[in-house]
Amino acid sequence: MTVAPEPRASAVDTVAAPALEVVGISAAYGPYRALFDVSFEVPAGGITALIGSNGAGKSTVSRVVSGLLATSAGTLRLGGQTVTGWPAYKLARAGMAHVPEGRGVFASLTVEENLKLAFRQRGGRKGVADSLERAYEAFPLLGSRRNQHGGTLSGGEQRILSLAKVLVVPPQVLVADEISLGLAPLMTDIVYDGMRRINATGTALMIVEQQVDRVLDIAQTAVVLEHGAVAYRGPAGGALAAVEGLLQARERAESSSGASAPVGVPELWPSPEGPAGEGNRT
Description:
Blueprint: H1 11-14, E1 20-29, E2 32-42, E3 47-52, H2 58-65, E4 73-78, E5 81-82, H3 88-94, E6 96-99, H4 111-123, H5 128-138, H6 140-144, H7 155-164, E7 173-177, H8 185-200, E8 204-208, H9 212-216, E9 221-226, E10 229-235, H10 239-257
Helix pairs in contact: 7-8
């Protein structure tokens, strides 16, 4: 008897689902609409830069995808699974981790106590010792500070501690929200090295960042937001041209109106040395 060969998997069948899919998302803070039909993907195991001017909606997107802010329209998928409306704790269990702009450490606990607490929650008691070893190997600075209280660490050291907490069980997606904001260049280098290490474990990254050149250097794809909507999405190499287009459009608008931007309005594209934080924080 002749047995027919099994059909080969098509290219479509073997392509992994995006780590994160944002489809037509809108969101609001009370009567204030902050996001308008935002759509993009974070590829599985990839790095996506989310950039934009002050108040463009970057941090609002990070809160929405992490379950910290409800959507008013649209769909969210995590690894192909629809997770729209899930609370933050449920998304975390499904593989979403969020390192916010705030440092997220317990000031009264030592570095090691902060790590142990996080590792027990994510991996159980048995794996704590191995997890500590991996964390100190990845971030030697933390090893030298293991007995220092979290509240006495510098801002950059606290950001590194927040990153180290996710090493025990690498998440499917890590959202890093302005994690290098206000840091010295040397500390920014260490933070970015840490994110590369996490990405090397297979975790996809969505990095919300003001330092455009820095994040585009490690990202494969990019999303540019303007006034709560997507102005560009595609390869990271095309993002700077999109930014330049936005700047030129604003210059033309100001020229035709004969008025310059009023004092106090944030730059369309602040430099790393420019205003820290988003003017109308979204």
